[in-house]
Amino acid sequence: MRLLLSTLLALIIATAVGLGLTYATATRGTDLGTLKIGAWTARPKNGTSDVDPYSRATIARSGELPIGTGD
């Protein structure tokens, strides 16, 4: 019984941490592939098919429509 409760507690903690970090990454975004020049911030791969999964999740959550690289 003690092993079962310990395992259940570990799974609950792991689920809470995983969902919390996923939510934080999706709402705040990441700096993968970000170019910072002075006060300007650019993410040149956001409008392409080479966008990383974290940026894709952030774009889907915010509802933005990134422009293509040619525009």
What does it look like?
It contains 2 helices and 2 strands, in the order H-E-E-H. By secondary structure, it is mainly alpha-helical. It has one domain. The chain has a two-stranded antiparallel sheet. Strand 1 and strand 2 form a beta hairpin. The model has no long low-confidence stretch (mean pLDDT 83).
The order of strands across the largest sheet is 1-2
| Uncertain ranges | none
Number of helices: 2
> What is the averaged pLDDT score?
83
User: What is the H/E order?
Assistant: HEEH
- The secondary-structure class comes to mainly alpha
| Helix amount | 40-55%
The biggest sheet amounts to:
2 strands, antiparallel
- In terms of DSSP E residues, the strand content is 5-15%
Number of strands: 2
Q: Tell me the span between the first and last alpha carbons.
A: 62 Å
- Supply Rg: 18 Å
Q: How many domains?
A: 1
Relevant terms:
71 residues; two-stranded antiparallel sheet; 2 helices; elongated; single chain; mainly alpha
Quick structural overview:
The chain has two helices and two strands; from the N terminus they run αββα. With 71 residues, the chain is mostly helical.
